[in-house]
Amino acid sequence: MNAQAEYETPDRLYCAQPPQPQPVLRSDLGHDRAAAILQNRTKWANGTVLHYAFLDEGGDVGGPEQLEEVRHAFGKWKGLGIGLEFTEVTSPDESEIRIAFSTSEGSKSTVGRDALTVGTDEPTTHYGWKLNSPYGRATALHELGHVIGFAHEHQNPDAGIVWDDEAVYDDLAGPPNRWPRDVTYHNILRKLSRSEVRGSPWDPGSVMEYPFGPGLIVKPEQYGRDGIPDPLDLSAVDKDRVQRWYPALAARPARLEPYRSQALRLSSGEQVDFEIVPTETRRYEIGTFGDADFLLVLFEERDGELRYAGGDDDSGEERNGRLRMRLVKGRRYVARARLYSTWNSGGAALMYW
User: Fold this and answer.
1) Cα-flanking dihedrals φ and ψ of residue 265, to 5°?
2) pLDDT for 84-109, tens place per residue?
3) Which residues does 302 contact at the CB level (< 8 Å), separation at least 6?
4) In the sheet where 322-327 sits, what is the strand order?
5) In the chain, what is the straight-line distance between the N-terminal and C-terminal CA atoms, in Å?
6) Model confidence over 26-41: pLDDT tens digits?
7) CB 212 within 8 A of CB 152
8) Residue 137: helix, strand or coil by DSSP?
9) Which of 173, 250, 275, 343 is most exposed, with minimal Cβ within 10 Å?
10) Would you call 70 helix, strand, or coil by DSSP?
11) If we measure between CA atoms, which residue out of 156, 139, 153, 15 comes closest to residue 76?
């Protein structure tokens, strides 16, 4: 990466993603059903309010200005009009995303909902160098791209990149990264399965792409000769991709009445929202029906903000999602159902009772 000397940014320092937990899927699911699960599994339910907390004031990376750059990066993603919300909180216990700064840890982040597997006293996102430079601001956007649920662009199976493997291992083993071979393989040479990504073409200008110097890529030849330059901002493909996964929300979702099922006519990755306002306080069940895999999440309105109340992910299982919860009379809730896949011709539905 093109270092900015005044910001002490090391040349071509990459974010080292830790291996992410992968679901163990039954071998009899069928290709299309398994692919839909893998493509959707890290994505948040659209409309989720992601609460983030800083665990320090910039660590040994820098001062409070580093926090401001992260806030600015959140604002830039949100400024695209997406349905996700980002809210800063002071208590890590109230957050899904926890951010720490440490030069020894480098820059890395869990991907999407994998953040929920991390303890509330541990960071989900690290920044390992100064963010107040063009390169640093791109790093802030890149790591938050992981937070939203996106993987590295150069690992797209449709990229068509043929690496000079040993040249890559040698390059990353040297300063400033000093990566062992397994880290280099996981973050650069490993291709994502076609089952894990939607069929989108490779975008070398994506902020989720790494820059690479000449001599590391065999094909396409132009990138072997010239390298891949620093992607310093969100590309047109980045913007389109996040807006398709997280479109702007309707002003007010339709009301879901008890004991009245609502047909769900969705394509893989699409979501429907319903408002629930109970007429009595008691224990209710909310569930999906039909031959379909869903992520089902319930949010409760508290002080004007929708907060997570419960969720169920039935993907890859021979059952339908169910939430069994006590709901309070007159209080407002929103149920969100995102489809992984459906099969057979019976369709799917949502109901509460």
Assistant:
1) -110, 90
2) 999 999 999 999 999 999 998 889 99
3) none
4) 262-264, 348-352, 282-290, 322-327
5) 56
6) 777 877 787 778 778 8
7) no
8) helix
9) 250
10) helix
11) 139
